[in-house]
Amino acid sequence: MLTRKLFRTAWSYKAQFISMILMITLGMGMFLGFNMEWKTIEVDTGKFFDQTKYADYRLYSEKGFTKDDIKKISDIEGVDAATRYLSVNLDIKGEKNKSLALDVSEDFNVSTFVVTDGAEYDENGSGFWLSDKFAAANGYKTGDTLTLEFQGTEIGGEIVGLIKSGEHMICVADKNQMMPDYNTYGYAYISPKKLRSVLEEKIKSDFADELKKSNVPEEFIDDSIAKLFVTDYMLTEATDKAFAQINLISGLQKETLEDRVRDALGRTIMVTPKEDHVVCKESSGEATEGKTMGSVLPVLFLAIAILTMVTTMHRVATKEKTQIGTLKALGFKNRRILRHYTSYGLFIGIVGTALGMALGLGVCKAIMSEGGMMGTYFDMPDWDAAIPFFCYPVMAATIGLLTLISYLSVRRQLKGSAADALRPYTPKKMRKIFFERFRFWDRLRFGTKWNIRDLSRHKSRSAMTLFGIVGCMVLMVGGLGMRDTMSGFLELLDNDISNYTTKINLIDNADLKESKALCEELGGDWESLTGISLDGDTVTLDIISNPNSLLNVIDEDNNRISLGDDGVYLCLRLKDRANIGDEIEFSPYGSKDTYKAKVLGYNRSVMTESVTMSDALADRLGIDYSVSSVYTDKESGEIGSSDLISGKQDKAQLMDTFNSFVEIMDGMVVILVIAAALLGIVVLYNLGTMSYLERSRELATLKVLGFRNRAIGRLLISQNIWLTFIGAAIGLPAGIGVLQWMIVSLAGEYEMKLMTGPLTYGISILLTFGVSLLVSLMVARKNRRIDMVEALKGAE
Amino acid sequence: MSIVQFKNVTRVYTSGEHELKALDNVSFSLDEGKFVVILGPSGAGKSTLLNLLGGLDSPTEGTITVNGRDISTLSDNELADYRAATVGFVFQFYNLIPTLTVYENVELVSSIAPDASDAKQMIAEVGLSDHLHNFPSELSGGEQQRVSIARALAKNPKILLCDEPTGALDSETGVMVLKLLLGMAKNYGKTIVIVTHNQSIAKMADVVIRVKNGKIREKYEQKEPLSADEVEW
Known about the structure:
The complex is a heterodimer of chains A (796) and B (233). Chain A is α+β, with helices and mostly antiparallel strands and 796 residues long. Chain B has 233 residues and is α/β, with parallel strands linked by helices.
C-alpha cells in the first residue's frame, strides 16, 4: 500500500521529483561521461598497444644497428622481444603535399599492426600495408599501386593490405603537429625483404650516378653491371645504417636498461621509454587532460545536484509533515515511516543514476568513438567505452547519500509525539537582519525589503540557488575560457612564434654545412632538435638560428625573446629545475660528453619539453648537431629539390591540424556549456518553484490586497536576478580560478597562459542571466494561476 | 442607497464530472455604511459570497454591482484595481506578510491604493504604535488581527470584508477586536460585511443575511442592534 503511496506522492510532487531526477541524471551523466572518456582512452589504447606489440623502449643510433647489436640487445636479461626498426618520412610520387611514414619491423614480434582489409603480414612480401585511414582519405584500396620517393630512387609496389598500427595510433609527422591529417600524411609498412631490395636498388642507382660522374658512357651503365658491384657486405652495411632504431618490449626500468644496453653494446645509446614516444605521450596526455577535466567540472555538476537535493528533499519532507503525523497517529511505527520516506531518496538515486549512466555513456561516445570528436585523433580498431572503477563506489555513495538525505529529512519531522507530527510545519520566525541597523534600510522599497528578508529567512534555499548560479557560471567560464586559452595559444603560435610559410624537414644527420647553405639560399631560419639527458630525463635540446625572425621563441608573458649567446632558456615545464643564473648540465644521447650552461631565462615551449639555445652558443660549447628543419617564407612550390630535404609542410597545413584540435575542444565545451545551462535551468526552476510554493500564501495576500500579477511577478523575478547578480560576481572569478587550476594541472602537457576575453565573460554572464531570467519568468507565470481563496485558508 | 447589488448570482464549482453549486441564483442588495453579518453553517456558501463580493472570484452567472460598477465581468487587472481601491479584507488567520514589520505591512498598501491613509496613524488607532518595528511572529493573535484591521482600513476602502475575524482568537480577545473593528468602521463611515457562523455577532448587525445550501434563506434588518458589551458571548 505504501509503495502505491510512494508513486502517488512522487506524482503529486512531480516538479520536484522530476527536477531531482534530472539533476542527478545531469550531474552523474557529466561526471561519468568525462571520467569514462579518459578511462576509455587508457583502456582502448592500452588494448591496441598490446594487440600491436607497441614497444616499451626505443633505442636510437645515428650509425644504425647491426645484426650483432640486435642479438646482444635481445639477449639482455629482462628484454622480452626486440626488433630492428625503421621509420622514415617519404613523399608519394605524383602527389602534392602527401607523404607517408614508411616503417619496417624486422622481427614482427614488436611494433606490429592489425590488418583491417587485404593480406596478412608476410615477411617476404613485396607490397605495401597502408594505413586504412590514409587509404580512405585519399581513395586508395588494396590492389592499387603506390610509389614513394626515397632519396632519388623510387619504392613502388602494390597495396596488399590496409592496416592500423599502434606505432602510428596518433599519426603525426612530427612533434610539432598536433592533429593527424590523413589527407596529407599517413603511414605504410613494408617487409624487411622489400627493404633489402629497395636498398639494393638505391646502391645500384648511387653506383650508376658515380659511373656517370666518372664519364662512363651511359650505354655501359645498365642494371647487370651495377649488380655486379653490389656486394652482400654493402647491402648489409646499408641495411644496418637504415635500421637506426631498435624497438623492444621489456619491463625493466629505464636506468637499468640503459646500463645493460651500454654493457651489451659497449657504447651509450639513447633509450627512449614509450612515455616519451609521441603516440604514448599524446594519448596519456589526452587521458591526463580528461582526468583534469573529469576531476573538476563534472564533480561540480554532481556536487550541485546533491546539494540541491538536500534542500528539495527537506522541503518535500516538511510538506509531508501532516501525512507523516497521520501515519504515526494511525499506528505506523517510526521505523516503517522512515523506511517509506527514505525509499523516495533511494528511488530518485537509482533512477537518476541509471539515467546518468546512459547519459554518461552518450557523452563518452560523443567524444570517444570512431565517429566522435576523438575519431580523427586516435586511429584504433576498438572503441569500447570503459568506466573507471572509482565511479562504481561514487554511484553507490551517491545513491546512499540521497537515501541518507531523505532519511535525515524525514527523521526530523518524526521527532516528538504523533500530535506534534500532525501539526503543520511552522516556518522559522522572522528576526531583524544585519542590514536593518543601517539607515539606508528604511529607504528601501517594500519589495526589496521583502526579498532580502525572504532570502535571509530561507538561507539554505537561497544558498543553494546561489550555488547553482555560481556553478553554472563557473562551468561556462571554465569551458569557454579553456577554448579561449587554447585558441589564444594557437593564435600566438600562428602569429608570434611561427612567421614562416613553409617548414622544410631535413633528413636525419643532414650535413651541417650543406644545411646551413640551403637555409641561407632560402633566406630562412633553422632549428636543430636533439635528445639530451637532463637530470636523467629525456628532453629536447632546441638549437635555433633565427636572424630572420621566422621562428621565434617567446617568454612567460608571450613576448618574443632575442636569444642570448651566453646561456640557455628552459621551457616552463622545466622551470623548477633551475633558477635564472644557475648552471645546468646535460648530455646529448649517444655521446659521453657533458655540457654546462647558465640559465638565462624561461620560454614557453609549444610542444616538447626543451632546453633552447642559440646556434652561437652551441658552436661555442662544441655541441655536435645537425639541422632538423629549415623555416622559410617561400611557398613549398618555390623550393627546389635537394637530397637534404625529407619533406615539406605548409604552415597553413600545420595550423589546420591545430584547428582540428580546437574543434575537438569546441565540441567538449559545447557539451559542457549546454549541460551547465540545463543544470542551471533545472536547479533554478526547482528552487524557484519551491520558493514560489513557500511564498504562495504571501503572494495570494498581495493579490487579495490589490497587487497586479505583473507587480507580483516582478517581485519574484527580482529576487532571482539579485541572486544571479551575486552568483555571477562570485562565479566569474571562481571560474577563472578553476580555469587557472586546470591550466596548471595541464602544465605537464601544454605550456599555456590563461587567455580569456571579454567575449567569454560576456557570453557566460549573458547565458547565466538568460537562464535565470527564463526560469524566473517560468516561475512568475505560475503567479497568474494562484488560487487566492485556497492559498489563504489555514494558518501559516 | 445600495452600495452592493447581487442579481441572480450563481457560482458553480466543477471537479471532474462533479458539479457543486456553491451559490444558487442569489439576489440581494446592501446599503452604504451598514454593518452586515452573513450567517450560515459550514459549506452554506457564505465564503463564496464574500469572495465574489471581494473580487477574488467571479460568478458563473448573474451580475454583481459594487458602487455602481459591474464587477462580474472585470479582467484580472481590473479586479486587482478594484480590490486595491474599493475593498479591504480582514481574514481569520490575519494573512500578514511574515517578512515585513507591522509598519511595513500597513504601509505596503500605500503603493497600490489611490487614496491610502497614513500607516502610522492607522497603527496608532489600533493601539500598536509601540510595535511598529515588530514582525508579525512577535505579536499575539489579537495584535496580529489589529494590524490586519489597520492594513484593511489604511486603503480607505468603501467596504470592509471580514471572514471569521474572531475565529482564531479567544472570546475575550475576539470581543476586543470586534469592538475595535466596528468602532473604526463607524468612525470612517465604512460598510462592513462579516462572514461568520457565530450567532452572537449577528446580534450586533444592522442587517443579517442567513445562507444555507447556496441560497439566501433570510435577510432582515435589526432596528436596534446590540453593542458588543450587551451581547452574551
